[in-house]
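Q: Got a minute? One more chain.
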Amino acid sequence: MSKDQKIIARVIIQMMGSPKKHIEDTMQMYMDKIVTDYKDIEIIEEKRSKAKKDKENKETELFKIYTELEIEAKGIESLVWFCFDYMPSSVEILEPDKIIYDQHDFTDFLNDLQSKLHHTDMTIKNLSAENQVIKKNGMMLIRNIVMLQLKVGKNDCETLATNAGVPVDHMEKFLEGLIKEGKIKKDKDLYSLL
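A: Always. Here it is, folded:
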């Protein structure tokens, strides 16, 4: 198969978010970006759903939207890079029935793919490390806020949570940890320093 042989495929791109208008606007920007960024991909047909409230997560205000595209890609590499960058939830190759690849071209493609995968893996590892540092710093910040509040006097969980800007259920777990560490104590509904 020639690297530039046309591939016709149907892809589905899904999004979830809130508010409704934002997720609809984001999907439109995503589709515009595909047209602008991918010169080797031509959109033949586009069908978009309306954003609908996610019924699976009743406690959230999230909306789902999807777009089904029929596209023509200039070669299998273009389709794979499109999938890699836009992460459709479904891909169905409509044409051709068979894809035969030249060994040299396929080797080059696999090496390019591996390079992109290694780059993505490194990015994820860096983001994960940064996330751990941010999480640790956030916990120390909350700890300092709680300890400073308790230095002034006894306080209940709700007040501590409000002043720290965290949900009450998160604060309860956090306070349990400080009790186990021997930093604070609980008497009825009030917390104080040891």
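A: The CA atoms of residues 162 and 168 lie 8 Å apart.
Q: Perfect, thanks.
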